Amino acid sequence: MKKLFTLTFLFVATVLFAQEEEKKSPLTISGSVDAYYQTYLTAPDNQGATFGTAFAGKSGFALGMANIIASYEGEKAGVVLDLVTGPRGAGATFNTDIVDGIVNQAYVYWNVSESTTLTFGRWNTFLGYEVIAPAGNFNYSCSYLFSSGPFSHMGLKADFALSDDVSLMLAVTNPWDTNDVSMSGEYALGAQLGVYGQYLNLYYDSGNNGGLGFEVDYTGGFDLSDSFYLGINAAYNDNDGAGFYGAALYPQIATSDSFSIGLRGEYYALHGDGDDLPSVFATTLTGSYTTGNLIIKPEVRLDALSNADGGMFWDGTPGGATVIDSDGLPTDSLAAFTLAAIYSF
């Protein structure tokens, strides 16, 4: 009995010690991998043009991205390193090498007090409703508003928790998507005010050397019922009298614990000198089925252009590729079916 009691005590102590060690571990590892299949419904798959938004622009089978995030949290400070590879990661960091590892985020932070945190390094943008990693979005393809703004910032930010429901962020960074160094000697300013889950975002750089200029952005949403959520994004950008504006709605309904369906309806337009500048209305219907850590997303998307001069939106730059329909004629709309698989860990 004495030996049995001793062995039992040692076993229980070992289990409790292991659980305590696991709970207190300052290092966490997470990440995701995604791939997709895409075919155009109104155009040949080999016609060369695609949607004028970031990422998921290939026909046939394609890789999205793979990323791994290592976070180390100390008593008052910590560090986050987010490495990404694949076409989506390359597009997000403006790195044309899609094979080697790419630094998506790398920053250190200091919890100065219970209500104040300083972050120094490269971190993903605070502008917009969507994010780079598809595991964080409901729709697999991205919106025009998200694609037109910054993806990341390199600099210093301060987050202030003013109350349980009100927050403030102030930032000084390199100009728009200058993720390494600012060779121009110019810097950008950013701010975010959060009130009860609604966020007003401001960004400003000089607009020189390909900068973004000034942008004001609202991101938020409301739980209209236990199963119905409505997300909202609206933005206005101006760079020396020209820029873009638009709005998007994200209604999402959970039909069960494992399946949801959501719609993104977006209007996006350019503004500046001249009349009848290009605009687009994009509608994306996405299903989301979750089993364990795996998410399957079937998606149908239709973009309709106005005043686009033969499809200038489709590669994201003025004078870009022209979309052709199944008869080989230029068209001002494009529809596609996409099936994506995302695994998060």
Biggest sheet strand line-up: 1-2-3-4-5-6-7-8-9-10-11-12-13-14-15-16
Oligomer: single chain
Q: What is the overall pLDDT average?
A: 86
How many discrete domains? Answer: 1
From the N-terminal CA to the C-terminal CA, the straight-line distance is 44 Å
Q: What is the name of the CATH superfamily? A: Porin, LamB type
Give a verbal description of the structure.
Pfam families: BBP2. InterPro entries: BBP2. This is Porin. The chain is mostly beta strands and 345 residues long. It has one domain (28-344): Porin, LamB type (Maltoporin, Chain A, Beta Barrel), CATH 2.40.170.10. Helix content is 10%, strand content 51%. The chain is built from three helices and 16 strands. The protein has helices spanning 2-24, 87-93, 144-148, and strands spanning 27-40, 60-73, 77-85, 102-111, 116-124, 152-161, 166-173, 188-195, 198-204, 214-223, 228-239, 242-254, 259-271, 279-291, 294-306, 333-344. A hairpin with a 2-residue loop joins strand 11 and strand 12. The longest helix is centred in the N-terminal third of the chain and has 23 residues, at 2-24.
